[in-house]
Each structure stands twice: as structure tokens, then as C-alpha cells.
Amino acid sequence: MLAQKTARIIATPAEAAAIGSMMVEPEATVSDPPLPAPEAAGFILALLLMSPKEPKEPKGK
Q1: d(C-alpha 9, C-alpha 27), whole Å
Q2: Distance between CA 37 and CA 46 in Å, rounded?
Q3: Which CA distances in Å does 13 have to 5, 19, 23, 24?
Q4: How far apart, in whole angstroms, are the C-alpha atoms of residue 11 and residue 17?
Q5: What are the Cα distances from residue 46, in Å, to 27, 33, 39?
Q6: How far apart, in whole angstroms, are the C-alpha atoms of residue 36 and residue 43?
Q7: How far apart are CA 41 and CA 47, in angstroms?
Q8: pTM, whole model, 2 decimals?
Q9: How confident is the prediction along the chain (61 residues), in pLDDT tens digits per residue?
């Protein structure tokens, strides 16, 4: 059997309010999801076109 003991609060109402305000967590701000940038497609395409080609294997004689 569980035993529960109640405690009497001896703080003034102002102290209880101050403690209550310290215990409240502020709401977290939620940001918008990242949006794709259309100009990034051209940059990625340019990088792919400028990338070095794979070296050809030497022909065996």
C-alpha cells in the first residue's frame, strides 16, 4: 500500500507566483522547413559539367 504525505505550502502568494514562473518552460519557436532554391540546380549542373572525366584505361598490347 502506498503512503502519501501532503505538505503545506508556507510561501506567500508572491513567492509562489515567482516559483511558478521559474518552473514554466518557454515555448520553443518552430521554424519553417528549408525550401529548395531553384538557382541551385544550375550551380550543381555546372559543377557536374566541369568535373574531371574518368581516365581511360591504357590499351593492352
Answers
A1: 28
A2: 15
A3: 22, 10, 15, 17
A4: 10
A5: 43, 26, 11
A6: 13
A7: 10
A8: 0.29
A9: 567 788 777 888 898 888 888 887 777 777 777 777 777 788 888 888 887 777 677 776 6
